[in-house]
Amino acid sequence: MAGRTYVIVGASSGFGQGAALHLGELRANVVLAARRSDLLEEVAGRVRAAGGQALVVTTDVSDPAKVEALANAAAARFGRIDVWMNIAGVGATGRFWDVPVADYSRMVDVNLKGVIYGSHAALRRFLAQGHGTLVNMGSVESEVPLAYHSAYGATKAGVLSLGRSLNEELRHAGHGKAIKVATVMPWAVDTPFFQHTANYSGHADRMALMDGPEKVVQALVWVSLHPREELPVGWKAQAASSAYHLFPDLTERVSANIHRAELAKGTPQAPTSGSLHQPVAEGRNVEGGVRARMKREDAAAEAGAAPLPAAQEPR
Questions:
Q1: Which residue intervals make up region (Disordered) (predicted)?
Q2: 3-class secondary structure, 97
């Protein structure tokens, strides 16, 4: 890993920050991209302290010119790009018709178009240098549609489809062995994503059996060395994917019912566009504190606290 150059898009918090810090410990060169410049500088300092090298390039992935500038800056500093990780993502929770269309437009700009822009910039450089690995962040929702995350799941399905077709094009071009595209597909994970997501459901978002971020961070680094076209992370993601292939309609219904029930337990919350349109101050770490909040919500319910309006179906 020492001396390999990684571009991480979405490095300010969550999986991106976790991967950057882990790569720093392995003495890699890490190019950190996101919107929050101050937080990127903090992460860069921690990467350097761990033994790696770091370059901060403030980037909004919805702007193709800024993504191209990111690739140029990485190549100018380190000479080449070995791995490009498209991790930046935003979400929206609520009934499809309750979420403003402007939020959906922004979600597509970041989650799908941003991945397309990053993939385009990375692959052209990989082709020029003769090698490289592209790692795109999908989700279990890339395969299993989830009610109240309708458009988010649609963008993640697009990411998975993009990776599959790109691998075929690389194979046809004779680069299938030297250049790989991997899509990482985790279950719901406790990261600041849940603090940053737009939410019009009336309740804080949550999910049953939520994972910690460590296993996904490890999977990102592992797949950069051992590329696989698709990598469901953990037994829950693997089981959901297998179930969907066998019983798609049943899996959709069960998933929808679980998410509705979990939302009903969430703390009441006013409508918010989260970090979709502008960065927010909160959510600065790898972990998001969602599991701790869920424990408080469940304990309050068991103690007979005032019932949440969430006993009703989410709005």
A1: 263-315
A2: helix
